[in-house]
Amino acid sequence: MLGTKPKEEFGETTIEVLGKRCKKVTIIWKAGQFEYYYNSEYLKMDSSLFLNYNYDGWYQFLKKSNSLPLRIVKKVGGMIITTMDLIEVNEVNVND
Asked: Is there a domain that residue 78 lies in?
């Protein structure tokens, strides 16, 4: 995603992943797009932790959603579509 800044679109489209209703943020760049589906009340994330991480429009997505995605759809050059779904969440305590 080098060069011009990718465009962001917010859709009214909602889908269900792991029983959670998810909204969509689409990051559009020259060679394709990423669709990130999220539920802002689930898997919350502090976007500032990724301020300088721009690969795949990750920070752009996080600053809008403030949560991790439950589904990611990557579309490249009209030839390849990759869909990644969260299938399980396990919470554990981690010592700092």
From this structure: yes
The count of structural domains within the chain is 1
Using CA atoms, how far apart are residues 9 and 93, in angstroms rounded to an integer? 35
Backbone angles phi, psi at 89, to 5 degrees: -125, 130
CA distance 19 to 28: 27
Q: Is residue 71 a contact partner of residue 61, using CB atoms and an 8 Å limit? A: no
At 26-44, the pLDDT tens digits run 999 888 999 999 999 999 9
Instruction: List the domain range (segments joined by +) for residue 79.
Output: 7-85
State the pTM of this model.
Answer: 0.85
Nearest to 65 by CA among 29, 31, 35, 30: 35
